[in-house]
Each structure stands twice: as C-alpha cells, then as structure tokens.
TrEMBL record:
Annotated TM spans: none
Entries under InterPro entries matching the protein: DUF1697
Classification via Pfam families: DUF1697 (PF08002)
Domain of life of the native organism: Bacteria
Coiled-coil residue windows: none
Name of the protein in question: Pyridoxamine 5-phosphate oxidase
Amino acid sequence: MRYVALLRGINVGGITIKMADLAETVSRLGHSGVTTILASGNVLFSSDEPDAAAVKTGMERALSERFGYTAFVVLLSRDDLVAAVDGYPFDDRDGWHSYILFGSDPARLDELLVSAPQLDPADESVLPGDGLLYWQVRRAVGIKSPFSLLAAKPRYKSTTTNRNLRTLHKILGVPTTR
C-alpha cells in the first residue's frame, strides 16, 4: 500500500527535523520507497503492513523516540489523497489560500465544523469532505481568520493537520515507486 504521512507541527515552534533524518526513521520501520516532500512533514512510502492504524502508531512512536517530541501523524493512502484533492469544492481565486484540513478522528472534525463561528463568506468558507474539511480563506485574513484560530486550539493538535492545495499537488506529483 502506498501511504502519505502528514506530520503536524514540525519545523515550526522549535521542533526541527531534517528531512533526511525523517526519511531514515521511516525506512528503519521497514517501509520502502520513502520520499519526503518539502520541509513541512510530508512523507510518501510503501508498506506491506495491512493495518493502517499499526503503521500510524509505529510511526508516531518512532518519531517521538528519535526526535524527542510528541509526534502526531495523519496517515492516508495515496489514493485517498488523490480523491481529497480531486474533490476540492472551491474555485481557484486570486488572493485566496486553498487548504484541506485532514483528521484522524472524525468526531474532532465534526466538532470543528459545528463549532466554527458563522463564517463571513467574503473572508473564508469551510465545507465537509470524507474524513477532512475543505477550507478556503482570503490571504489578507489568513491565520487570523476565525476558523484558523479555532482549528489551532490545542484540543485539535493530536488529530488534525492542514495542507495548502499547492503542497498536496506537489506530493501527488512525486512518482509512485516501491
């Protein structure tokens, strides 16, 4: 199975991990075709392990032990990432950022969606997807938007991470190898 691991909170806030070290750690777990994309914690790899939960748990444990922080990983198949990107519901607009917020706990995603304040569509919009939330925000509002501030709360740290649509296209542009 070809997987994509999206790590939360690395190379920000004092947690610095070199991508070569990250790739080595994932390879030592017995995974193959390991490739990192950008320096924001995106790892493509193949695994013969059929249990995705075991892959996720093993990766979080190994990263925590090696790099001395509490690792949080959102793990999905490459096919699921393709479906998520293909399903992006918002039009590409100048002056806007397009994101997908991924989650490993559907209840937390539901909570985020329900807890989101009434969003001003002139500034941002959020729509549900399958195990994710699609989000588009005006660049001028950015990380100070109501939804961004809500999603950044500590209660969501261990189960969610977001990626810009451009980053996701870069991940998907990496050739599939074993």
